[in-house]
Design a protein that fits this description.
Elements (H helix, E strand, L loop, with lengths): L5 H15 L7 H8 L4 H13 L3 E3 L7 E3 L11 E11 L12 E6 H4 L7 E7 L13 E5 L9 E6 L2 E10 L2 E5 L14 E11 L5
Parallel strand pairs: 3-5
Antiparallel strand pairs: 1-2, 3-4, 5-6, 6-10, 7-8, 7-10, 8-9
Length: about 210
């Protein structure tokens, strides 16, 4: 069984204390309220991580039915963070896309190269317009929402109400988006360009 992060251990201990007091397993909303999480989704991510790591056992078909894995013995380890995956981003022509949370990806903080915040999120890449930057179809790209991009940085953007993944470029003070594949044209906004996140890290799963 995998070891736990500090926050995951705290969530497990809270569930254990509630059950030891004779109360039912706390809901995601109750866990979020106890720890001051911004939403119950953050609590759900921690619970899913605890189940995946074998610290909790979910009894299927029963609401709020979790039990502690008695044999689980947490081991001290480097800090990890659960980054929400907010759907996909097209690396190709812009597309309409609504935020669609797929779950979380757990990453060792030391491997990120930056300190994640509540504004850190991930998107699954679809398409091949960014292969010149070694970003391929199926990769998971990690972004930070909030900072203004510098010229040459990769961004997830909303251009004329369509989502895309491209390189942010300034020419004569005017922004546009550049593909890193000669098959695709530059994208020049006719109405608006909204930067949703600045690229920070790429996660690639092994292909079978």
């Amino acid at each position: 069984m995998a070891d736990l992060s500090k926050k995951q251990s705290a969530v497990r201990n809270f569930i254990a204390s509630e059950q030891a007091a004779g109360r039912s397993c706390p809901s995601h909303r109750e866990i979020a309220a106890h720890f001051g999480f911004a939403s119950s989704y953050a609590a759900a991510c921690h619970v899913k991580a605890l189940i995946r790591k074998g610290a909790l056992i979910a009894e299927g078909g029963k609401a709020r039915a979790l039990r502690l894995a008695d044999a689980f013995k947490p081991v001290r380890r480097a800090a990890v963070v659960d980054i929400p995956i907010l759907g996909s981003v097209p690396a190709g022509p812009g597309q309409d896309r609504e935020q669609d949370t797929e779950g979380c990806i757990t990453v060792d903080v030391a491997t990120l190269g930056f300190k994640p915040t509540r504004n850190t999120f991930a998107l699954r890449v679809t398409g091949d317009s960014m292969i010149g930057k070694h970003i391929c179809d199926g990769d998971i790209a990690v972004f930070e929402h909030g900072p203004d991009p510098r010229a040459g940085q990769i961004v997830a953007a909303l251009i004329d109400r369509k989502n895309t993944l491209k390189t942010f470029v300034l020419k004569n003070g005017k922004p546009f988006l550049k593909a890193e594949n000669p098959k695709y044209p530059d994208l020049i906004p006719s109405e608006e360009l909204v930067i949703q996140g600045v690229f920070r890290m790429l996660i690639r799963k092994a292909r079978e």
